[in-house]
């Protein structure tokens, strides 16, 4: 009998990749989101059902969880929204509604997509799942709250796992990375905080999909798992590799950390930049997680390095530049409005 997986946030960047992945694994797929699906192939696939529903709508949500075997809860309000009440209502109230519906409809397993933003500023690296959580900003705080809700429902009998992924990329990923990709495309400087010699781990979105699948189907429950690339270097080395592969004349320009963070903090407070505290505080420091637990219990074997991920994503960006440059929004599949930063970059 064909299994059915419901994906909240299903029309977003991760949701679309998960839909493609699970279709290859012979699942039927339900994509639940408030945004329309733009992927034409998925729209035409008869094994894909798109449901317009807000995770905060408890009654409607419960109805759509009927006859569902598995749930991936990927819906989230990103920090770019800069509205604490909205982010909290989606990421916390919405998560409680998802877990409650899954329990009532006897879903076999739920995987909650959390974030390494839960750790905040690393006390040590690599960060492990048992390390203290000191989230920076409301987004990280809501992810910590979401994890607690998951464990609350696990104690009630719901089979659930949590995944904390590093920043994940792949073709079609836009969001915050467009500011670098656009600079490389136009042979302009790439600005980074600090000297760029700090180690920073990314994650391939397809590797993440494989881990999510394992977290759903393996006989493991009530666990939290980190996810990140196995091979990664410093920002400077990885970005230089991207610049070289792109054939760009861009150069990396280091900005002084403290003055830049103060300026970015002011822009954030004035709602003149989508770059939030978690971004600009963790960017110039070593930031990577241990994936030993994911490897041991879920067989996680990431296939792509930071440079592979950046190059693959940028080449897609370059190929589709004219088509995507006119889009804007607040998800990872849209070009973010960098506001004052965009204006400044045009004159550099």
Can you give a write-up of this model?
By secondary structure, this protein is of the alpha/beta class. It folds into 2 domains: 190 residues, Rossmann fold; 131 residues, UDP-galactose 4-epimerase, domain 1. The chain contains 14 helices and 11 strands. The strands form 3 sheets. The protein has a 7-stranded parallel beta sheet with strand order 3-2-1-4-5-6-10, sandwiched between helices. A two-stranded parallel sheet has the order 7-9. Helix 1 packs across helix 7 and helix 4 runs parallel beside helix 5. The longest helix is centred in the N-terminal third of the chain and has 21 residues. The chain starts with a strand and ends with a helix. The relative contact order is 0.14.
Give helix and strand order, one letter per element, not per position. EHEHEHEHEHEEHEEHEHEHHHHHH
Please give the CATH architecture of the largest domain: 3-Layer(aba) Sandwich
The largest beta-sheet arranges its strands as: 3-2-1-4-5-6-10
Briefly note the structural class of the backbone. Answer: alpha/beta
What Rg is obtained from the alpha carbons, in whole angstroms?
Answer: 20 Å
- What's the total count of β strands? 11
The main sheet comes to: 7 strands, parallel
Strand content: 5-15%
Q: Which residues form runs of ≥5 with pLDDT under 50?
A: 338-344
What form results from the Cα inertia axes? globular
CATH topology of the largest domain: Rossmann fold
CATH superfamily of the largest domain: NAD(P)-binding Rossmann-like Domain
How many structural domains are formed by the residues?
Answer: 2
Into which percent range does the helicity of residues fall? 40-55%
Number of alpha- plus pi-helical segments: 14
CATH class of the largest domain: Alpha Beta
Average predicted confidence as pLDDT: 92
Cα end-to-end separation: 59 Å
């Amino acid at each position: 009998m064909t299994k059915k997986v419901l994906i909240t946030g299903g029309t977003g960047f991760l949701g679309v990749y998960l839909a493609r992945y699970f279709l290859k694994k012979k699942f039927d797929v339900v994509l639940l989101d408030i945004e329309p699906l733009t992927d034409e192939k998925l729209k035409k696939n008869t094994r894909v059902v798109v449901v317009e529903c807000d995770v905060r709508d408890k009654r409607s949500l419960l109805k759509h969880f009927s006859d569902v075997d598995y749930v991936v809860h990927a819906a989230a309000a990103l920090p770019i929204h800069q509205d604490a009440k909205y982010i909290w209502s989606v990421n916390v109230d919405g998560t409680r509604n998802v877990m409650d519906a899954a329990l009532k409809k006897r879903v076999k397993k739920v995987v909650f997509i959390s974030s390494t933003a839960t750790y905040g500023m690393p006390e040590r690296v690599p960060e492990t799942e048992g390390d203290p959580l000191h989230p920076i900003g409301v987004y990280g705080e809501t992810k910590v709250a979401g994890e607690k809700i998951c464990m609350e429902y696990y104690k009630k009998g719901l089979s659930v796992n949590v995944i904390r992924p590093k920043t994940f990329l792949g073709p079609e990923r836009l969001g915050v990375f467009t500011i670098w990709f656009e600079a490389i495309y136009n042979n302009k400087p790439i600005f980074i905080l600090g000297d760029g010699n700090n180690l920073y781990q990314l994650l391939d979105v397809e590797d993440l999909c494989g881990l999510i699948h394992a977290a759903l189907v393996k006989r493991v429950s009530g666990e939290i798992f980190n996810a990140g690339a196995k091979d990664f270097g410093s920002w400077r080395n990885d970005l230089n590799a991207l610049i070289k592969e792109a054939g760009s004349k861009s150069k990396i320009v280091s900005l002084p950390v403290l003055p830049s963070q103060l300026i970015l903090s002011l822009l954030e407070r004035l709602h003149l930049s989508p770059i939030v505290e978690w971004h600009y505080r963790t960017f110039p420091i070593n930031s990577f997680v241990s994936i030993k637990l994911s490897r041991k219990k879920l067989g996680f074997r990431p296939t792509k390095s930071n440079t592979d991920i950046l190059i693959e994503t940028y080449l897609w960006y370059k190929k589709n530049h004219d088509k995507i440059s006119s889009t804007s929004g607040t998800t990872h599949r849209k070009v973010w409005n960098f506001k004052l930063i965009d204006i400044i970059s045009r004159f550099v």
